[in-house]
TrEMBL record:
SUPFAM superfamilies: Inosine monophosphate dehydrogenase (IMPDH). It comes from the Bacteria. GO terms for molecular function: nitronate monooxygenase activity. InterPro entries: Aldolase_TIM, NMO. Signal peptide: none annotated. Nitronate monooxygenase that uses molecular oxygen to catalyze the oxidative denitrification of alkyl nitronates. Acts on propionate 3-nitronate (P3N), the presumed physiological substrate. Probably functions in the detoxification of P3N, a metabolic poison produced by plants and fungi as a defense mechanism. This is Probable nitronate monooxygenase. It comes from Calderihabitans maritimus. It holds the Pfam family NMO. Keywords: Flavoprotein, FMN, Oxidoreductase.
Length: 315
């Protein structure tokens, strides 16, 4: 089965593989630049970054990408959403991904700058609205994904439903970790796939080794759904901090940094993600997709692509 040609606006990556933009300094320039250079779309997770840090990451990713496609992912729920989008536009990023809420303005800003905007959605209704307002493509994300979730339904159910109501490309996301998964999504009508969890276990991902070890040790039953202060459920790997959340005993924020437009303040999501990213994995949250247990190697990004494509071709 031939790989589909993914077109987002005027952008056509060599391979229809998007590296998910994981927030709070998980998807940084080193990873995004490597993915872009290899022929996919490399995405910087802008949420949780200062505006100056985002500028630095985009510029560094550009220097590594060898002309490849660099995007940013910006969560609408972030208080600095508009400022982060403007910063990305001013730095000449190639594409903007956005989810965890819906902004009409971002499509206008993208159109004015000539930068395509891709909406991350979890229903046919949301995909239809995104296309109506100007989305160049949609990422159809199922419950199998890591991090914040917009549905309790499988990507395998969502992709065909969205394909029926939109004409723009549909990119499948959630639980995709190998070439078989890619082939399954293409058979359902997806024009490409977004993968985040697989790329955490790359040499180029800059998270602490303790974070990657949590991934490598994860068993099939080790990812659970937790409540996030963002107001959405989220998928994470079980650890002592997650157990406190499930028991309603997670420590309340001592000082609110107002990183979100709205926050339940049950605990500080920014601190929890920062702790785990830096190696304090028992004092934070380690987001991961449902199929993290299938990945048992840390590999360079080019080798990950080789494996994915070989597995896909074998199918």
């Amino acid at each position: 089965m031939k790989l589909p040609k993914l077109r987002i606006g005027n952008l056509i990556p060599k391979f229809p593989i998007i590296q998910g933009g994981m927030a709070v300094l998980v998807s940084t320039a080193s990873l995004a630049g490597a993915v872009a250079k290899t022929g996919g779309i490399g995405v910087i997770g802008a949420t949780g970054m200062s505006l100056e840090r985002l500028k630095e990451e985009i510029r560094k990713a550009r220097s590594l990408a060898a002309g490849g496609i660099i995007g940013v992912n910006i969560m609408y729920a972030a208080r600095q959403f508009a400022e982060l989008v403007r910063t990305a536009i001013n730095e000449g990023v190639d594409v903007i991904f956005t989810g965890a809420g819906f902004s009409r303005d971002v499509f206008r800003w993208g159109k004015e700058a000539g930068i395509p905007v891709v909406s991350i959605v979890s229903s046919a209704k949301a995909a239809y609205i995104a296309e109506k307002y100007g989305a160049a493509a949609v990422v159809a994300e199922g419950v199998e994904a890591g991090g914040h979730l917009g549905t309790d339904r499988s990507v395998r159910e969502i992709v065909p439903e969205i394909k029926k109501v939109v004409k723009i490309p549909v990119i499948a996301a959630g639980g995709i970790v190998n070439g078989q998964d890619m082939a399954d999504m293409v058979k359902l009508g997806a024009s490409g796939v977004q993968m985040a969890t697989r790329f955490v276990l790359s040499e180029e991902c800059s998270v602490a080794k303790e974070f990657k070890q949590m991934y490598l040790r994860a068993a099939q039953e080790d990812t659970v759904i937790i409540k996030s202060p963002v107001g959405l459920p989220a998928r994470a790997i079980k650890n002592p901090f997650v157990e406190l959340i499930q028991q309603g005993q997670a420590p309340k924020p001592q000082r609110c940094m107002s990183c979100l437009k709205e926050c339940s303040k049950d605990y500080c999501i920014l601190k929890a993600l920062t702790n785990s990213r830096g190696g304090l994995v028992n004092d934070g949250i380690v987001f991961a997709g449902k199929n993290v247990f299938k990945i048992k190697e840390i590999l360079p990004v080019p080798v990950i692509f080789e494996r994915l494509l070989a597995e896909y071709n074998a199918v």
